[in-house]
Amino acid sequence: MNSLIDVLIKNTFLCRILYTMKNFWNNLPDKIKGYLLTFIGILAMSNVFIFSKAALQEVKLPQFGFYWFLTGFLLTLILAFYKDSFRILKNFSKKDYLLLIFFGLLEVISTTLFFKSIQTMPNPSIVAFMGNLGPVFVLILGFLILKERFNIWELIGIFITLTAAFLLSYNPEWIHWNEMFIKGSEYVLGFTFLFAVSSILMKLNVVKFSPIILALNRTLFLFLFSLIILLSKNMSFKISVSALKNIFVGSFLGPFLTAIVGLYALKYIEVSRKSILSSTKGLFVLLGSYLYFGKFPSQIQIIGGILSIIGVTLIITGKKLLKEKKL
Fold first, then answer.
1. Would you say residue 48 lies in a domain?
2. How many domains in the chain?
3. Backbone phi, then psi, for 170, in 5-degree steps?
């Protein structure tokens, strides 16, 4: 009897806490909600770099991908059923399904390059900062394909971000030309360019895909790709417990939590503000990398990281100014 009363008291206390938290959240201004969700997303994404780096030090990339994207797929599948996201599929044409297949294949290549860069580069914070090249490629492809104009601020932003990328990837100990940049820089250029291609193609596509369907499509393709590589190379499914823990935590934070809070953050703040804040994730990865691995970038790389944030801010602000002028 006493234990039952204790359970009821505890549950009542928990309900009160949840009710108080719900009221607190509902009374917050929309912008504050957006900033909080974006900050949670930045922290979650920053930890993806750390946990994936830790796991990749113990396992092969296909083994990592199998468990990482299986977890991400299952979590996203649960969310898809909860949100009834599959109902939009009945309106899809043959072209839409073909586009999903194409996006899935594109994600396989770009995401493989992303994790390959984390595995290869000694410090994951360099990958995070160099990832800010994405908006540069989006802007250039938008100009070439979509005939979008850009202004002086965006041009300055492009120059600063490219300078930052050079400083981040530069190898001061190079002797031959092929040693001028640190190993793994080519993978970062590859995945940022392909992510930009994906963004442009989404702009050209007239059908609006659900973010949950896209996340499900992405994780499914990456899981199947990892499984095929595992089987074709006769790799073991057995991995260490520590690697499995890092993969489960990282995949929850990455393919799942980051996608969810990112989606809800856009309900409360503009895409431009979210993008500027997201460009600072390298700073959190830098701190996490130092605490977890005891690694810290060189002074020139820190300067490059700060410049990359400034460059992205100018690009996004410049784009916003251009839109306001049109109005």
1. yes
2. 1
3. -70, 135
Separation of alpha carbons 183 and 246, rounded Å: 24
Eight-class DSSP state of 254: I
Tokens of 23: 């009221």
Helix (H/G/I), strand (E/B), else coil: 170: strand
Where would I find the H helices in the chain? Answer: 2-26, 30-56, 61-82, 94-120, 124-130, 134-145, 152-169, 185-204, 211-232, 241-251, 259-265, 271-278, 281-293, 299-326
Kindly tell me the burial class for residue 149, based on how many C-beta atoms sit within 10 Å of its own C-beta (0-12, 13-18, 19 or more): exposed
Q: Report how far apart, in Å, the C-alpha atoms of 61 and of each of 57, 58, 117, 279 are.
A: 10, 10, 11, 26
Rounded to an integer, the average pLDDT of 225-235 is 93
Give the pair of three-digit tokens for residue 312. Answer: 């992205």
303 part of a folded domain: yes
Cα(108)–Cα(104) distance, integer angstroms = 6
User: Which residue range forms the structural domain that includes residue 281?
Assistant: 30-326
Provide the pLDDT confidence category of residue 182 given band limits of 50, 70 and 90: confident
Summarize pLDDT for 115-174 with one digit per residue, the tens: 999 989 888 888 888 888 888 888 788 777 767 677 788 888 889 988 988 888 887 777
Q: What CA–CA distance (Å, rounded) separates 235 from 240? A: 14
Specify if 241 maps to a domain. Answer: yes
Cα 190 to Cα 64, 115, 208, distances in angstroms? 20, 11, 26
So what's the pLDDT on residue 206? 47
- Does residue 10 fall inside a structural domain? no
